[in-house]
Design a protein that fits this description.
This protein is of the alpha/beta class. Helix content is 37%, strand content 15%. Helix 8 (170-186) runs parallel beside helix 9 (215-227), helix 9 (215-227) packs across helix 10 and helix 16 packs parallel to helix 17 (508-518).
Length: 564
């Protein structure tokens, strides 16, 4: 923005207008031409008496004078237009300088910036091409004052999200590297939050993900972050197998001092081509963040498991751990040994299969502080060496088990028995469970009722059997309406406040029976407060909403959805 020096209005006006000599000459030319035009009407009568050549020369001289006058007039017009443009620029500049927004204090501008960037705290790199996308880089381009406000808050520059293809060329990588250096300098000494996303690029004739990876470019982009590893606070990789292999080629994350790091996440899908490459050329990139005394949260999803080992982290100091992935025929990560060392865990998500059982050594896995546990089961129950039989979680409050079912013909009756037995044994050692989610478990109605008998104080129950080998929803709803005298094992879950069911075999009759038995009055202490149903392919949603409308008026939080 230009700064206008203080000047006298008369001098400002004279500086914007054409020079007097030029304007006077234009006026004189116009006066002479007007006088000559007044005599042109009689010039043709002179041709008969005077010499025609003399008259012609006079006219040619007049024409030349007019042309010169036109040129001087056009010059004056250009000067005037230029002066007008300068004046309009000055008007705009002064109006901008006098705008009320310039009187806002820096604290209020910081609050405006916070709301402007509230949708995404991360700076996207490379900058998005979408017009109007909130960005701190755009905020700093409004004016000098707003740029100063952006630069005076270094914490705003400390959250970076890099999104690049794994085929990034070297030229773009170098430009991006320079920009990252600049932003890291602006963040000063603030703790860094880093998201590093590398996506595959499809190549004709190839499967996903593509084989081509420019490892040199990926390492160049990541290099500035390594120089500031002492400021890492949260690091999140969303990366392909090939890119991870290239990025960790030089042991970039081995024995790296990261004293401020609290959260470390690696995730990424695993394709069929990756499996073939892995079998032909085993890949075990090492991550050894033993020099991370503040590390509390670790997530290893799919590709992330390939980079981990028993010595990757100080497991005893973790509060949250996710180790999710399934690699057929291969054992990559000793999650059992890791869990045995996680005495401080409060939240955990793990995947188990028949290969996980190979790590069980008979020693119990005692997790006294664990409050949330999510288990993805990929294997067929075999009744031997199941992880549930070794875990003791006395403080567990929420349990989620998702059975990723193999072929249905592999599930037999004895598998249903083993599943019921192992989950019941686990729940008997977790007396404080209040929220239970069971997805597609190989359980019949009797087995499910027996499992629920071990959690009499349950308040939140979720059952999903969309991919299960057994359809048990109607039987479960019926059991939940029965009184306690039916059987010693059939506990009616008097404290149940929320039920979430996703099933194709859920009928209106049993749903109404459950709601009537669980919502006797609006002020009942043990009444059902929330019912959430997803009933694909049943066509009952509209009818159920009408039938349960009176219970909604009595305070029941009702959410019914469905699809054909």
């Amino acid at each position: 923005m230009r700064v206008i020096q203080t000047m006298d209005p008369h001098s400002l006006q004279s500086s914007m207008l054409p020079q007097p000599e030029l304007s006077d000459q234009v006026i004189c030319d116009l006066s002479n031409i007007y006088t000559l035009f007044s005599t042109l009407g009689h010039i043709t009568s002179r041709v008969a008496t005077d010499d025609g050549n003399v008259i012609l020369e006079e006219l040619l001289s007049l024409d030349a004078s007019i042309i010169k006058s036109i040129e001087r007039t056009q010059c004056a017009q250009r000067v005037l237009l230029s002066a007008q443009e300068n004046v309009q620029d000055l008007i705009h500049t002064i109006q901008t300088m006098m705008a009320p927004v310039r009187k806002l204090p820096p604290e209020l501008l910081c609050e405006i910036k916070r709301h402007y960037l509230s949708l995404d705290e991360f700076i996207q790199l490379p900058p998005p091409d979408i017009c109007g996308q909130p960005s701190l880089l755009v905020f700093g381009q409004v004016c000098r004052q707003w740029r100063r406000v952006a630069l005076m808050t270094p914490e705003s520059w400390s959250s970076l999200h890099i999104t690049i293809p794994q085929t990034l060329d070297n030229c773009k990588a170098n430009r991006l590297k320079s920009l990252i250096h600049l932003l890291l300098e602006r963040s000063e000494n603030c703790s860094l939050r880093i998201r590093f996303t590398v996506f595959p690029v499809s190549i004709t004739g190839e499967g996903w993900p593509a084989h081509t990876t420019n490892g040199l470019a990926l390492r160049a982009v990541f290099e500035p972050f390594l120089l500031h590893a002492h400021r890492w606070w949260e690091v999140d990789f969303d990366i392909t197998y090939a890119a991870l292999e290239a990025l960790l080629k030089d042991d970039a994350l081995v024995s790296l001092p990261v004293p401020c790091l609290e959260a470390f996440h690696i995730r990424g899908d695993f394709g069929a081509n990756d499996t073939r490459r892995l079998f032909n050329n085993p890949f075990r990139p090492l991550i050894k963040l033993s020099l991370a005394p503040a590390l509390r949260r670790v997530s290893l999803f799919h590709v992330g498991l390939l980079a981990a080992s028993g010595s990757s982290f100080s497991w005893s100091q973790l509060d949250e751990l996710s180790a999710v992935g399934f690699f057929p025929g291969q054992i990559f990560f000793d999650c059992v040994t890791a869990l045995q060392g996680c005495q401080r865990l409060t939240r955990c998500r793990i995947s188990t299969s028949e290969y996980t059982r190979a790590f069980l050594n008979g020693a119990p896995i005692v997790l006294p502080s664990l409050e949330y546990l999510h288990i993805d089961e990929h294997g067929v129950p075999d009744g031997n060496g199941d992880l549930y039989l070794h875990m003791i979680c006395s403080n567990l409050r929420e349990l989620l088990i998702h059975f990723v079912a193999p072929a249905r013909h592999n599930i037999q009756n004895h598998h249903l028995f083993w599943t019921c037995e192992r989950i019941s044994t686990f729940l008997s050692r977790a007396p404080r469970v209040r929220q239970l989610q069971l997805w597609d478990l190989p359980l019949d109605a009797g087995g499910l009722v027996e499992v629920l008998s071990f959690v009499p104080s349950l308040t939140h129950l979720t059952i999903g059997d969309l991919g299960s080998v057994c359809s048990i929803t109607n039987q479960l709803l019926h059991e939940l309406t029965l009184p306690l005298t039916r059987s010693e094992k059939r506990i009616p879950l008097k404290c149940l406040e929320s039920i979430h069911i996703e099933s194709r075999s859920c009928s209106e009759h049993y749903i109404l029976g459950l709601v009537k038995s669980r919502c006797p009055s609006a002020h009942s202490a043990s009444r059902l407060k929330r019912l959430r149903l997803y009933l694909p392919g049943t066509g009952q949603t509209a009818t159920l909403r009408g039938s349960l409308e009176k219970f909604r008026h009595n305070g029941l939080n009702l959410d019914i959805r469905g699809s054909w």
